[in-house]
Structures are given as structure tokens and as C-alpha cells.
Amino acid sequence: MIGRTIAAPSINTSGAAHAMAILKTNTFKHAIGAGRQQVGIWNSLCSNIAAEAIAASGYDWALLDMEHSANDLRTVLGQLQAYEDSPTIPVVRPIWNDPVIVKSLLDMGAPGLLFPMIQSVEEAQAAVAATRYPPRGKRGVSMSQRGNRFGRVTDYFDRVEEETCIIVQIETREALSRVGEIARVDGVDGVFFGPADLAADMGLLGQVANEGLWADIVDGAQIARAAGKPAGTLVGDPAKALELFDAGFAFVACGSDVNLMVKSADAQLKTMRDALG
Prior knowledge:
Blueprint: H1 14-19, H2 27-33, E1 38-43, H3 48-55, E2 61-65, H4 73-83, E3 89-93, H5 99-107, E4 112-115, H6 121-129, H7 156-163, E5 165-170, H8 173-177, H9 179-183, E6 190-193, H10 195-201, H11 211-226, E7 231-234, H12 238-246, E8 251-256, H13 257-276
Parallel strand pairs: 1-2, 1-8, 2-3, 4-5, 5-6, 6-7, 7-8
Helix pairs in contact: 3-4
């Protein structure tokens, strides 16, 4: 309408301030560094819904497995989102010690990584380097990605190293013989012992309850602790998990989503079959 004054739209600057954020504290990393025991669970179902259901349980940490499951970057992303508002810290095991995969996982916001099959100091150093920006490493730089809330986390570059947990996995006798020097690599936050692969390398394929195997693992954990790094592992039995905590382990996954589902499904069906005759 001629002669009508149109008021300029008001500009609300408070939204921009609210959009700014600080990097989330990695409670799992700081807990194991301080010697506080952390109870975990393994996630192999490749499902954001399963992860969301487990997130409400309140485990200290959850391993999202890419090495021995059908997980890919998209399914891992959905699970990271499922754990976002829970007290559980997700740790991703990539399919290999590959800086290209690591770059994607960190940009997606993975707060921790478990590197499989670390055999030497050099391989541990390469794993750490993949998580560090130049000049300390070789991680590619993105200014806007999920890990920094698309550029809104104001302290991301300053704090991402201290809030990213780097764990190396010992899976062979060769690696076990070098566990002290591997543990001392700068940037390694924890040492994880893989009982299934260690058993296989010892000629005990499938015998993950073997007493000699666990004696060697406990000895390796003591060496890691002497080098100043906490030790962790995976078992399928809470009683064994408690035994390992008593032996000085700092982080133990006491079961997996797939095994919990399988055992429960089998037990329920057996109850029904027995009742029906």
C-alpha cells in the first residue's frame, strides 16, 4: 500500500550465541586414565535402534564393531547418534588401521577408537598419527563436520586430542611380547587384549576360556599398567569380567548385544518347547 511504512524485521542475535558449543568431555577416557573401572558392552547388531535401547541401560562404554560385523560408516553414524545423549561413551573399532577410515570416523564424531591387530610400536604410532592434525599427525582437516557440530564447537581444535580415546588391540603372541613398548607410545590411552585371536595364535582356536591364555593376558595387562596404560578386554560372562576387574583391568566389556539376544531367544524357546512337550 502506498505510503505505508514497513517495519524492518527484528534481528535476534541470541540464537547465534546459543549455537556455540564446547566439546563434550570423554568421561570414559578420563575414567580409565584415573584408574576407575568401566563396564562395557559390545555392539555388533549394526542397528541404531538396538544402540538406542542399550544406551538407556547406562553402560560406561560401548564398542561399535566394524571389524567383525556388517557395520559401515552410515550404520555407525546412526549408533553414534543413538548414544549422543546417554552417559555411555561409544568407541568404534574400524575394520583396519587405515587413516582414511579413521578420518571419516573422527569427522562423524567418534569419541574413541579401538585399533585392531597392532603388532609394533610403528603401527601404534601410525594409529595415533591418523587421529592428530598436522603437524602432530596426518588427519585431514574439515572445518564443518559432525564432530565439531558443523563448526559450532569453538574449542574443537584445542581439545579434540585430549577428548579422543585411542586404544590399541593386542591379538598375537608377537604383539604380546612387545606390549610394554607398544603401551608407551605417546597418544595411546589404553591397551585392549583380544582373547579370541590370541587363543588362535597360540594354537587354541575357539578355546577362549583356556586358563593358560588368560594367564598370559593378565601378565600382559600387568606389563601395560607398569608402562602407565590401563588394560581392557571382552568376555561373555559377567563373573569373568568381575574376576578381571579384581586382577587390575580398567575396562571390560561383559557381553555383546547379539549374544544377549541369541541367548535370550534360545532360552525362551526352550522354555516353551519344554512346557509344550
